[in-house]
Amino acid sequence: MFTKKANSTKKNNMFGFAVMMAAIAGLVYLSVALSSEDNEYTISLIEIDGNVYLSKEEYYKFANFGNPEEFGELSLPIIRDRIQKHPYVKNAEVEYEGYGKVSVHITEKLFNSVLLADNKNYLISDELELVPLQLYTQMVNYPVIINPNDKIDYASVKYLTNKSESLTGVKIISAIKLINPELYDLISDVDLSGDQNINIRLTNYDYEIRLTKKDFVRQLSYLSEIWNRLKKNTMQNNIEYVDLRFNQNVFIGFKQDDVDSGEIRS
Question: Which CATH architecture has domain 45-108?
Answer without folding.
Answer: Roll (3.10)
